[in-house]
Specification:
By secondary structure, this protein is of the alpha/beta class. The protein folds into 2 domains: 70 residues, Winged helix-like DNA-binding domain superfamily/Winged helix DNA-binding domain (Arc Repressor Mutant, subunit A, Orthogonal Bundle), CATH 1.10.10.10; 114 residues, NAD(P)-binding Rossmann-like Domain (Rossmann fold, 3-Layer(aba) Sandwich), CATH 3.40.50.720. It is built from 8 helices and 9 strands. A 7-stranded mixed beta sheet has the order 5-6-4-3-7-8-9. A two-stranded antiparallel sheet has the order 1-2. Strand 7, helix 7 and strand 8 form a beta-alpha-beta unit. Keywords: Cytoplasm, DNA-binding, NAD, Repressor, Transcription, Transcription regulation.
Length: 220
Amino acid sequence: MSSMDKNISPAVIKRLPRYYRYLGALKAKNITRISSKELSERMKVTASQIRQDLNNFGGFGQQGYGYNVENLYVEIGKILGLDKSNQMIIVGAGNLGQALANYQDFNNNSIGFQVIALFDVNPKLIGITVHGVEVHDIDDMEEFIKNHEIKIAALTLPQDQAPKIAKELASWGIKGFWNFAPVDLTLPDSVTVENVHLAESLMTLTYNIHSREDNEDTGE
C-alpha cells in the first residue's frame, strides 16, 4: 500500500525516513527482528506511535514476533518511492550544489536517487565534473529535462533567482523541488516543494540553546 492510497498525516510521512534510517542501521548490524518497544527505545518515539504509524500502511508486525527488519526496511522504502529510479538535477553548481553532488548516499544503491547533471551560468564551472557528474550550461536545461524526463530538481540558487527559475522548471515538467534557496516558491498545486532553509534551522537551534540557558539562570 502506498501513502497515496488514503489520507495519511504529513507528520507520519515525515517520520518514515527516520524509520528507514534506523532500520538500515539495524540491518547493517545483522539484526533480523525487532519489537516496537525496542525500536521505540532506540528512536525515542513511543511504541504505540510506531504501531499507529505503520498500521496506516498495513502494519507489517506479527504478534509475539515484532517486525522483520529486512522486510520492513524494504516495505518502507517502497512507500517512500525508493524502489524506483529517481533521477534528479542540481541547479546551481556553487559550493552547496557541488557538496550535494558529492553526498555519498546519492552514489550507492541504498536509496533510489541519482544526480545526473548540474547546471550553472558560470562559464568557469560549465564542463567540469563533480563526482563524475557534468556541469551543463543553464541554457541547455529545458532540453535536458525533457529528453531525460527529469521530475526532481535541487535548487541551490541565490534568493533573487530561485522563483523565476523554479517556475520555468515546473513548466518543463519538474514535479518536485528540493529547495535550498532562502525564499518561498509559488508554484502550481501539482508541484511538491521540500524546503531546506539552513539559516532558519540554525536560528531554531540558537533559540533552543539560549532558551534553556535562560531557564537554567532563572531556576525554572
